[in-house]
């Protein structure tokens, strides 16, 4: 499974790359605002800076909600760097734009997916990636990981090459669960990825090994 970091913070992206586990980045307007990046020119420049760090997909989200606006904005975002994937919301106008942009060779990440039916529509329209928000699905009393399983099964049954990206990952436990469910990608805050390194038994075992070494070697 690929690991994407969900951030617009350059330091976090560089640290994830240094760890050797970074496959891509997802961003959105909220994450840009969190870093104090405002204004279209500055946002586009920031996307370019991220793309220059990452040897993999970088998802850049449109803010338009009408067909013409999404298509125009999608073309602009895709022109920033060759590894840009345009994030388009799962709405009727968005699906129409996904078809148009994907026919032009622009790779699309369909975001805000909350059902297997929505994922199927996005795949049929040509999306390269669909992003089910599993944490938000859990908030409604349903099972986000089960949604991943359903989408993966549908795509496998009908031979869709669209990748399934587990978004809204909120805990380290979500990552192995979505991997077991067949997700191609998990995107999450850098801290969630960082938490995967730690286990109390690892700390206890390492401390014991080091103490034993000191007893023998002074």
Protein model, in words:
- This protein is an alpha/beta fold and 218 residues long.
- It has eleven helices and eight strands.
- It has a single domain (2-217), classed as Aldolase class I (TIM Barrel, Alpha-Beta Barrel).
- The protein has helices spanning 10-19, 29-34, 40-53, 67-78, 92-103, 116-125, 134-139, 144-158, 174-181, 190-195, 200-217, and strands at residues 2-6, 24-26, 58-61, 84-89, 108-113, 129-132, 163-166, 185-188.
- Strand 7, helix 9 (174-181) and strand 8 form a beta-alpha-beta unit.
- The longest helix has 18 residues, at 200-217.
- The chain starts with a strand and ends with a helix.
Number of domains: 1
User: Count of helical segments?
Assistant: 11
Low-confidence stretches: none
What is the CA-based Rg, rounded? Answer: 19 Å
Which homologous superfamily in CATH is the superfamily?
Aldolase class I
Give the overall average pLDDT: 95
Q: What's the overall geometry?
A: globular
């Amino acid at each position: 499974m690929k690991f994407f970091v969900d951030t617009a913070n350059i330091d976090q992206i560089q640290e994830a790359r240094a760890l050797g586990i970074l496959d891509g980045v997802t961003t959105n307007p909220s994450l840009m605002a969190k870093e104090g990046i405002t204004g279209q020119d500055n946002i586009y420049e920031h996307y370019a800076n991220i793309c220059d760090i990452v040897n993999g997909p970088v998802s850049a989200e449109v803010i338009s909600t009408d067909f013409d606006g999404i298509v125009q904005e999608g073309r602009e975002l895709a022109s920033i760097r060759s590894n840009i994937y345009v994030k388009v919301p799962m709405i009727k106008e968005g699906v129409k734009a996904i078809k148009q942009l994907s026919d032009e060779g622009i790779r699309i990440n369909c975001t805000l997916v909350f059902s297997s039916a929505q994922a199927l529509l996005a795949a049929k329209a040509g999306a390269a990636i669909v992003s089910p928000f599993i944490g938000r699905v859990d908030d409604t009393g349903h099972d986000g990981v089960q949604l991943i399983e359903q989408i993966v099964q549908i795509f496998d049954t009908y031979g869709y090459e669209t990748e399934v990206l587990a978004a809204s990952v909120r805990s380290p436990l979500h990552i192995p669960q979505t991997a077991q469910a067949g997700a191609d990608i998990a995107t999450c805050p850098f801290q969630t990825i960082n938490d995967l390194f730690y286990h109390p038994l690892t700390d206890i075992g390492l401390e014991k090994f080091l103490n034993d070494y000191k007893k023998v070697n002074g």
